[in-house]
Amino acid sequence: QVQVVESGGGLVQAGGSLRLSCAASGSILSINAMNWYRQAPGKQREFVAVITSGGITNYADSVKGRFTISRDNAKNTVYLQMNSLKPEDTAVYYCNAHTLGRPYWGQGTQVTVSS
Length: 115
Hints:
Elements: E1 2-7, E2 10-13, E3 18-26, E4 31-39, E5 46-52, E6 57-59, E7 67-72, E8 77-82, E9 91-99, E10 103-105, E11 109-114
């Protein structure tokens, strides 16, 4: 079992920045990748960024150059630094711990970007 808890969401003006955190606990060694997804109102949940256990990262085209995913292994925490935020980044952001057995999702954190 893995538990993930997101934090750091909030309201920010367009052009601003936020840093989301995702703290993992439980069977940490079973995690092979940590992902961020987001879901805007009326839309499907979409992939944002991933960091693998080997440190490889990948991003959705819509956030490349603006968002950075990183991790602190000592804290079992993954971060999503979001810069140059746009109104279209408004969504609930979810953290996902990917294991061989199944993915584990957090409850999500709301990010609202005002124009």
